[in-house]
């Protein structure tokens, strides 16, 4: 998904995992990140490819992407009952007081985004700072459910395909999320109706909780619902499913078709149960979220096997026993006839099939630690070869497997790092002939490749085949470069199960990406990396931090110390888990009224914001330095006061937005290259395109802004005031009107 209404270069990211409500994103939810080139600008991560953003002369282009987290970041600034979905996209139709919806996201009324959309009162008057919706939109946008949208990008393109003069002239009905209002007289902004919008709009309405629908046949009445939203069933009205169900076919708890997080669907009863209730030959499959049949013949009891991503049989029927392969896969076999192979032997009583490396039993029926292949013809098994990383020592029943050096796959002597013959994955043999020493693929001090996780040295020229999780791959497959760091944590916070979305800006304005959620069990984001020692932060549980101890403060799902980087980039002093004094670079501001369970510091340029109870605090997009705002009223939204902007832009007078401002001598602009305040005692010219020593004739000095007198308007250069009736011919408009009338009157019928 792309957007065209946002300024370029963002400077920080929000992870809502820091909030108690945080969880994986649900269908229809929208969450955003903002950051620089690593992820672009403010974005919304979407499943579909983003269309190109169109240029708008009032502001510069940027991109919005989507959902990694829920509660969605829209929920921070949106009124609780004003979140709607258009297809798979969540939009806000009513922001907290102090924000207005532009393309479904809440922006301060004085922001460039609101200005570009022409978001105003119904009569065109400027919105006040407590506005929560738009009543009128400008050219290139259309009004829909209290917000302004563009047709060229989502979600606007899902609603409308053609707009003119701030209203939609052709609704997008292709996906059946929207239908055209066929009322005789349509109120501006009600041309398109969302299927779930049950509000009476000129006698026409949708159906509450409906996803897809058919428009009413006449010019009045309600739509006919084809498909209800997830969690509801029916065809109008849409009725809520049982609390256990995510989707359903009826209201009872045995009519579920899918389950909420933490529960699994039993397909034989259509009920949602805990993992432990997936009994018999079924297991709780975390991918399908069902009690899935193991498909292992003769298996009677099984469980999920994370090693294989499939089932693990724990008990068999028909007098068969479990046989476990080296890779962890399980089958049920007849011990006497189906057990023995190079990796297995049977116990003396033909009651178990034992893996060569399985030492859990007792003599003489247990294997040899780290043994790969073996035989048993006597009292004890004899190991023949060892698993990767081990070397066989001794012979016969007394043979054991000794560990090679930790980097070796095959070695000629155990524990000696110089006796490697081949290396484990992620390492390379430095010498041209074996044995030798294995070094990590990313060990640049010994000829490795920076950021490389796996490599190939078979041709004599080391080439990277896989980058570390926290590096961005570039180049050809089999010969990659991995120089761009995407996360400061080497594991990228546990890979795809984790999240590296806590962006911290250092004193030089450079972004660094840190962990906001840890993908590995019993690890927590402390000082931006995932560690098992929470350093006394008892509020860190379930892979995320929700409160911090003395000397630390909460930021985007992690606890940060003020005594070292990256915490000291943001905060100078913290007390009782709350940042009380920001770092001296002023790139962050203190969030008013925050407790130790709230995010107490926020980047000046972070428009996604954070919640303290019902109050939303946001940064100003594109802002590099700021001061903290005053606390808004309950349920309100307030932005930092920007004092300096990125990319050569300048803030407007009230600090609510950053604009391109190339006017010489201008300190504040409130439109791109439209000066609002001049520096050094100069005055804003009538056309706001320059700063002048004094106001020209036919103008008045209004607080150092030159305003043309009645009957006069700025000339094309914006430096002088000319008569509003003057024209290039030198004739007054009245004279021209008289000539026009005379000509018309003189024409034949």
UniProtKB/TrEMBL annotation:
Domain EGF-like residue range list: 194-239, 240-273, 355-402, 403-439, 440-483
Organism classification: Eukaryota, Metamonada, Diplomonadida, Hexamitidae, Giardiinae
Source organism of this protein record: Giardia intestinalis
Region (Disordered): 24-54
Name under which the protein is recorded: Variant-specific surface protein
Gene3D superfamilies: Hormone Receptor, Insulin-like Growth Factor Receptor 1, Chain A, domain 2
Pfam families on file: VSP
InterPro entries xref list: EGF (IPR000742), Furin_repeat (IPR006212), Giardia_VSA (IPR052798), Giardia_VSP (IPR005127), Growth_fac_rcpt_cys_sf (IPR009030)
């Amino acid at each position: 998904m792309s957007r065209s209404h946002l300024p370029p270069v963002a400077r920080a990211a929000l992870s809502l995992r820091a909030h108690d409500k945080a969880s994986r994103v649900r269908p229809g939810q929208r969450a955003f990140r903002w950051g620089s080139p690593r992820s672009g600008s403010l974005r919304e991560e979407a499943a579909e490819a983003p269309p190109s953003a169109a240029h708008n002369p009032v502001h510069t282009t940027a991109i919005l992407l989507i959902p990694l987290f829920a509660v969605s970041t829209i929920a921070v600034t949106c009124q609780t009952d004003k979140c709607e979905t258009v297809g798979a996209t969540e939009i806000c139709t009513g922001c907290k007081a102090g924000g207005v919806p532009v393309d479904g996201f809440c922006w301060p009324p004085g922001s460039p985004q609101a200005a570009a959309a022409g978001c105003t009162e119904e009569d065109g008057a400027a919105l006040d700072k407590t506005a929560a919706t738009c009543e009128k939109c400008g050219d290139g946008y259309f009004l829909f459910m209290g917000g302004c949208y563009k047709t060229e990008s989502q979600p606007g393109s899902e609603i409308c395909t053609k707009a003119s003069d701030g209203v939609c002239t052709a609704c997008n009905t292709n996906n059946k999320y929207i239908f055209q209002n066929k009322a005789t007289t349509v109120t501006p902004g009600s041309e398109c109706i969302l299927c779930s919008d049950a509000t009476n709009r000129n006698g026409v309405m949708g159906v509450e909780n409906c996803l897809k629908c058919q428009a009413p046949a006449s010019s009045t009445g309600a739509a006919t619902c084809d498909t209800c939203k997830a969690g509801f069933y029916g065809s109008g009205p849409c009725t809520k499913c049982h609390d256990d169900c995510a989707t359903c076919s009826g209201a009872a708890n045995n009519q579920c078709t899918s389950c909420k997080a933490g529960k699994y669907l039993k397909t034989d009863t259509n009920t949602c149960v805990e993992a432990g209730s997936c009994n018999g030959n079924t297991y709780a499959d975390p991918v399908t979220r069902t009690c899935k049949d193991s498909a292992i013949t003769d298996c009677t009891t099984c469980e999920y096997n994370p090693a294989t991503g499939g089932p693990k049989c724990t008990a068999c029927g028909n007098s068969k026993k479990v046989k476990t392969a080296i890779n962890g896969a399980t089958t049920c076999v007849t011990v006497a006839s189906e057990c023995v192979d190079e990796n297995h032997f049977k116990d003396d009583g033909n009651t178990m099939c034992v893996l060569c490396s399985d030492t859990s039993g007792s003599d003489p029926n247990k294997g040899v630690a780290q043994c790969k292949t073996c035989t048993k013809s006597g009292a004890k098994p004899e190991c023949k070869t060892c698993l990767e990383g081990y070397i066989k020592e001794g012979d016969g029943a007394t043979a054991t497997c000794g560990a090679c050096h930790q980097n070796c796959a095959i070695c000629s002597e155990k524990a000696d790092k110089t006796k490697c013959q081949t290396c484990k994955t992620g390492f390379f043999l430095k010498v041209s002939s074996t044995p030798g020493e294995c070094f990590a693929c990313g060990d640049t001090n010994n000829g490795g490749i920076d950021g490389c996780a796996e490599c190939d040295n078979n041709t004599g020229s080391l080439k990277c085949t896989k980058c570390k999780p926290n590096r961005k791959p570039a180049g050809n497959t089999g010969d990659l470069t991995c120089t761009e760091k995407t996360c400061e944590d080497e594991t990228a916070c546990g890979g795809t199960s984790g999240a590296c979305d806590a962006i911290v800006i250092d004193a030089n304005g450079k972004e660094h990406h840190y962990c906001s959620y840890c993908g590995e069990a019993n690890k927590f984001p402390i000082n931006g990396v995932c560690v098992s020692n929470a350093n006394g932060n008892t509020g860190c549980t379930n892979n995320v931090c929700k409160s911090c101890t003395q000397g630390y403060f909460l930021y985007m799902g992690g606890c940060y110390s003020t005594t070292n980087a990256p915490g000291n980039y943001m905060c100078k002093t913290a007390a009782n888990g709350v940042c009380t004094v920001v770092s001296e670079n002023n790139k962050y501001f203190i969030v008013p009224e925050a407790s130790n369970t709230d995010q107490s510091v926020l980047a000046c340029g972070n428009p996604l914001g954070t919640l303290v109870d019902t109050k939303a605090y946001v940064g100003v997009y594109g802002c590099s330095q700021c001061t903290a705002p005053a606390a808004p009223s309950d349920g309100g939204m307030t932005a930092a006061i920007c004092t300096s902007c990125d990319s050569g832009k300048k803030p407007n007078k009230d600090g609510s937005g950053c604009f391109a401002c190339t006017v010489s001598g201008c300190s504040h602009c409130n439109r791109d290259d439209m000066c609002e305040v001049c520096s050094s005692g100069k005055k804003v010219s009538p056309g706001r395109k320059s700063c002048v020593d004094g106001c020209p004739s036919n103008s008045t000095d209004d607080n150092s802004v030159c305003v043309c007198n009645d009957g006069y308007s700025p000339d094309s250069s914006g430096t002088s005031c000319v008569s509003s009736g003057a024209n290039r011919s030198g004739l007054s408009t009245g004279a021209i009107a008289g000539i026009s009338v005379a000509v018309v009157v003189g024409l034949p019928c």
